[in-house]
Amino acid sequence: MFEEPYRWMEAVSTRHNYVQEKLKMGQPVLAVPYNEGLLIFGFAPQPGKIYEIYDRIALGGVGHPADVEKLRMNLLDMAHLEGFNRSAQDVTSTRLLQFGIAPALKQNFEEIQRAPYIIRLLLVELTEQGKPNFFRMNYDGHWETFKNGTAIAGDEKVMDWLQREIQQQPFESYTLDQALQKAAKLWDESRKIKSKESEDEKDNELPETLKEAFDQWYLEGAVLTEKSMSKANLSCQLNLYHIIFHYLFLQQREDISNYPSLASHLCENHVSYTQLTMPP
Fold first, then answer.
1. What are the tens digits of pLDDT across the range 219-252?
2. Cβ atoms within 10 Å of 142's Cβ, excluding its own
């Protein structure tokens, strides 16, 4: 009987090691503020990394797709139930985390007879006052709040490096174009950090640069802004940024300062991004 607590602690430690090993190859998701709202984006081999939870709340996930989808549905159900029983103003990320998903994750992780969730989640919210909030949740139910942006990744060293770099940048003063450009560069640099620290475990199938990521993977993102904007317009703008970045990196150029007006004009006139001919 007296040995049981020690066995439980050993089992929990083993679960930590197991989940961290499974998450190791998870690709980063970054969320940063900009002067009119916030941006969340990431690359993935297949779509399914960024989701809408409620009107002002978005979710990014790293881990097993089935676990991410299950928790996404739980958050979606909680948000809409809260909005129905109370009001839309009462649906906040803090309530969803503190009274909903965090206790469930903690209970699941500590019940050693059940399989743990293989996930890390990033929740972002734009308040009614236009203030961005950033939350990061771990697989064991522990969650943190950030004011100036955050990131999640499978590798904890990469995640910590991205967090330090994000805190050092004045993203809140950037335009959307500048924020996307800088965040994309941080994503690119994080790939180099990862390959440098794990050369013996290098997977040749994974893209090592931003250009290779555009060639092989999908870019997913969402923009939460103070300005009123339809979902179709949001989709158009993000896809345009994708095309612009792809074109510039293929041409070995890094400055997109000449293209924001083009993107805005085409979005306002609902031009399909698939029909774009990029300027020379």
1. 888 888 876 444 444 444 455 455 455 444 444 4
2. 12
Question: What is the Cα–Cα distance from 84 to 81, expressed in whole angstroms?
Answer: 5
Q: In sequence order, what are the beta bridge partners of 224? A: 38
**What would the pLDDT profile of 187-196 be if each residue is shown by its tens digit?**
988 887 765 5
Quote the tokens at residue 243: 């095309």
According to DSSP, the β-strands at 132-137 and 50-54 are unpaired
Q: Hey, what's the torsion of the CAs at 42, 180, 262, 258, to 10 degrees?
A: -140
Q: Tokens at residue 14, please?
A: 């083993």
Kindly state the tokens that stand for 22: 């499974």
Give me the sign of the Cα torsion angle 198, 204, 205, 209: positive
pTM of whole model > 0.90? Answer: no
Are 125 and 133 a contacting pair, CB within 8 Å?
yes
Tokens matching residue 50: 């960024």
| Cα–Cα nearest to 237, from 39, 11, 17, 9 | 39
Cα–Cα distance for residue pair 254/237, rounded to 1 Å? 19
Encode 33-57: b = buried (16+ Cβ within 10 Å), e = exposed: bbeebbbbbbbbeeeebbbbbbebb
Cα(143)–Cα(136) distance, rounded to whole angstroms?
Answer: 5
What lies within 8 Å, CB to CB, of 227 at 6+ separation is: 36, 37
